[in-house]
Design goal:
The chain is mainly beta. 10% of the residues lie in helices and 39% in strands. It has helices at residues 14-28, 70-73, and strands at residues 3-7, 10-13, 33-37, 43-46, 58-60, 98-103, 108-111, 117-124, 132-137, 140-145, 149-152, 158-167, 173-176, 180-185. β12 and β13 form a beta hairpin. The termini are far apart.
């Protein structure tokens, strides 16, 4: 077996030495880019050197790319580079799902000789800070507050239409309940006269 001394202290078979020497030109070609046109007219970029008889082949000269250190690219005040896109989705405005009068039920008679009635409400989600609930009777605001019920006194005998509204700090109506009707029944004493 014939051996060649490639490095001091290492003996390598001659066939392996020849293979390594044949690879040197290929290794030298690394980093080069060639542009060719195939038989279908497609432009192909490759790092494989073209055949010597290929008339459409040309070597592309690649300039040294720009480079920089990471510390140079990221400034100390990174937050200054964070920009919210204008078309980013904004948070949906708060809204109430439910606002209704629970008691008295719609078209319910209320028997109370003093004319007192308690209006019980249901709001979901709960009333938010800065919002107020208004009780309307006959279209006019009769009470306002952040409570879940309203107490009316000395309500006249007869049929009354009521509704609820929730308003924000500027007085904008956020939600309005369906209108409800109750009938106040009070004893009337007539004196013969």
């Amino acid at each position: 077996m014939i051996a060649t001394r490639l490095l001091p202290g290492f003996l390598v078979p001659a066939a392996l030495a020849l293979a390594l020497l044949a690879a040197v030109p290929t290794l030298a070609g690394e980093g080069r880019i060639f542009r060719t046109v195939d038989e279908h007219g497609n432009v192909v970029f490759t790092d494989i050197p073209p055949r010597e008889d290929d008339e459409n082949a040309e070597q592309i000269i690649v300039e040294t790319p720009n480079s920089f250190e990471v510390e140079e690219a990221i400034p100390a005040a990174q937050d200054q580079w964070i920009v919210e896109p204008e078309d980013a989705e904004t948070e949906a405005p708060f809204r109430y799902d439910t606002l209704q009068i629970v008691s008295p039920a719609d078209d319910e008679p209320v028997r109370e000789n003093a004319g007192n009635v308690t209006i019980v409400t249901n709001v979901n989600p709960r009333l938010q800070s800065g919002h107020r609930m208004r009780l309307l009777m006959g279209g006019a605001v009769v009470q306002e507050g952040a409570q879940g019920s309203f107490s009316l006194t000395n309500v006249d005998r007869g049929t009354h239409r009521i509704a609820l509204e929730i308003v924000d700090g500027e007085g904008n109506v956020l939600i309005r309940s369906p209108e409800s009707t109750f009938h106040m029944l009070r004893v009337s004493i007539r004196r013969a006269g």
